[in-house]
Amino acid sequence: MLDKHLFLVGFMGVGKTTNGKKLAQILQRNFIDLDELFVAQEGMSITDYFKIHGEADFRKKERDILRQLGDKEPAVIATGGGAPCFFDNMEWMNENGITIYFQMPYQALAQRLAASKRQKRPLIQHLSEEELLDFITDRMAYRHPFYAKAAHHINVLELDMKQLVKQLGLLA
Ligand SMILES: Nc1ncnc2c1ncn2[C@@H]1O[C@H](COP(=O)(O)OP(=O)(O)O)[C@@H](O)[C@H]1O
Ligand SMILES: O=C(O)C1=C[C@@H](OP(=O)(O)O)[C@@H](O)[C@H](O)C1
Ligand SMILES: [Mg+2]
Q1: pTM surpassing 0.95?
Q2: Which residues are the signal sequence here (predicted)?
Q3: Which residues are within 5 Å of ligand 3 (an ion), measured at CB?
Q4: Is the distance from the beta carbon of residue 78 to the nearest atom of ligand 1 less than 6 Å?
Q5: Span 17-41, mean pLDDT?
Q6: Are 76 and 19 a contacting pair, CB within 8 Å?
């Protein structure tokens, strides 16, 4: 396990970025956030990129940036919530590392997203908590089959990263 990337996948707000940093620290590896890399390379926020170029262009760039990671040393990589659901990104991640699907109940996800800085996430920035729940339910109907191709499925609502490391034998 240790000589491959670990790709964290799952819906917006499930904690890929926050937990990814912790996981990388525990495993003493580099941490890469696909969204942060996107912002650094394009020189603008994801919200601005969506406004100026639209989602279709975002997805193409996101795919290209993901592919750049193939020859980097093994890292913990937090993907954006949509990345696994476009092109053959999920197959590519499965070929180039270990994929871990972070899940939690939709209600908890809606609460968490409502409390977070929504302006950073263009797809949900104008939604109320109630609308968020409908949005999550709708999108997950489409997205879950992509996420479900991950090697490991983990409920992260009450899981800390030390437990995850043990559960998956990541330090073994
Ligand atoms: N274990 C946790 N408990 C409570 N809130 C959390 C936890 N992990 C993340 N959050 C919060 O949830 C929001 C989304 O987390 P984030 O890591 O950005 O998710 P993702 O990268 O999957 O979209 C943030 O506001 C973050 O502070
Ligand atoms: O689910 C999505 O389509 C998106 C998720 C975001 O990442 P997080 O999952 O880290 O919020 C970011 O890539 C962009 O706003 C689109
Ligand atoms: Mg994130």
Answers
A1: yes
A2: none
A3: 16-17
A4: yes
A5: 98
A6: no
ipTM over 0.95? The verdict is yes
Name the residue with the closest Cα to ligand 2, atom 1.
81
Distance in angstroms (rounded) separating the CA atoms of residues 159 and 164: 7
Distance between CA atoms of 32 and 22, rounded to whole angstroms?
Answer: 12
Express each pLDDT in 2-13 by its tens digit. 689 999 999 999
For residues 91 and 133, give the distance between their C-alpha atoms in angstroms, rounded to a whole number.
28
Q: Which residues of 9-18 are buried (b: 16+ CB within 10 A; e: fewer)?
A: bbbbbbbbbe
Domain boundaries, the chain: 5-162
CATH 3.40.50.300 for the 5-162 domain, yes or no: yes
Q: Which ligand 2 atom sits nearest the alpha carbon of residue 17?
A: 10
DSSP 79: P
84 contacts: CB under 8 Å, gap ≥ 6: 9, 90, 93, 99, 143, 146, 147, 149, 150
